[in-house]
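Wed. Picked up where I left off yesterday with Integrase core domain-containing protein. The coffee machine is broken again, so keeping this brief.
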Amino acid sequence: MDMKGAGATIRYPVRDRDAKHPALIEEILCTAGIEAMLTGVRMPRMNSIMERWVRTLRAELLDRTLLRNERHLRRALHKYERHYNEHRTHCSLPAAAPLRPLPEPITGPIQITRLDIRRHDRLDGVTHEYRHTA
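Structure written out below (tokens, as returned):
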């Protein structure tokens, strides 16, 4: 049996390892066929990090895309994961992506003689990336 609410089916609710979690709730969930997934050991922020990632995924992809079927969803998620890790800038990584090296710092005065910026569509046009051309 699955818990249902707001059109969602919940099979594996995530909870922390707090000792205050009553055994009775665990027993009720098990009786209903629901297995609670525990966060990692000594990782109090694990749930908040995943919540942030899911919120970003929804805002940048899922709320803007009409998905046709599971295959289309999996393809879109794979493309978004690559975009998120290889191209999307992150505030915590001074405007760099996790799998891309930090840009070289600018030293000395710069004079721009020609500004040529190109736009590249990402995620089938849902979001865009801009780059200077050489």
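Quick read: Helices lie at 23-31, 46-60, 70-86.
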